[in-house]
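Note to self: user wants both folds in one dump. Writing first protein now.
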Amino acid sequence: MPGMYQVEAKETSCRSCGQTVLENDHHCKHCGIGAPGIRSRCPRCKSTNYVYHRYGYALIRGLLATLIVGPLGPIFGFVGFNRTECVCLECKQGWFPFMPEVQVSRFNTMVGEEGRMSRRFKKIPANCYDRS
């Protein structure tokens, strides 16, 4: 099973215009496309017009686990911490991109640019955009 991709602050080329951007930029400062350093596409509509967000600490999960497990419960809030999720701007489908170096299946066939689908969003989350 391929691992999920963790976006970092390393330089890469924009997937649209080719200019140098940081992989974790929300938008390209040259062409304006969302998530310029992540090369993936929507598994539902195959669009390459998307943004991403990273998961933080899950407070509700940590609190519920504390009620069930006890004092070690807050540790469960870190499950999925720093995970990167892409959100399609066309159909609002979310997905987790695969790591580029593990896109070959055990039968030596390409998995493709799509990742594992997650939930479908009713609206684009506010933390996907660079509001500054």
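First done. Writing the second protein, which came from a different request thread.
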Amino acid sequence: MLAVIAAAVVIVVVVIVLFWTLGIAAALIGAVIMGITTTIIKIFIVPKFEARDRYRLASDNVRLSPEKLEVRFDNLKNGYVVDCFYTSPETGRKFVFSTEPFPSDPTPYLGTVRLTIVTNRIDYSNYYVETADLKDRL
């Protein structure tokens, strides 16, 4: 009787140990596979979609000239961001369009460069700011 109980305990312990070690191994393998997949998607797939969206915006939508520019340091993006202010002449609504972050302060160059906002005709939240001239000077 003691031998049967001891054998049952040994079997339960072995099953728990195997489940524990294989469970952690499976989780680690899954995490590595997910990390590799996410990296591949961010490096190869996302830029293609962003380029396609920019091309679609540039060829199909409206270009706006900002009325006022302000530079601020964005801690979340870890860089200087130029806020472009625009007021719609049709509705009078005010919009703020932000550039991608710059590593250095672009304030000295804002008087000599031209920033253009490319946005969807209907939904102004789908936009980007053309900053090629500013990037060349920084």
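Dump finished. Worth passing along: The two ends are 83 Å apart (CA to CA).
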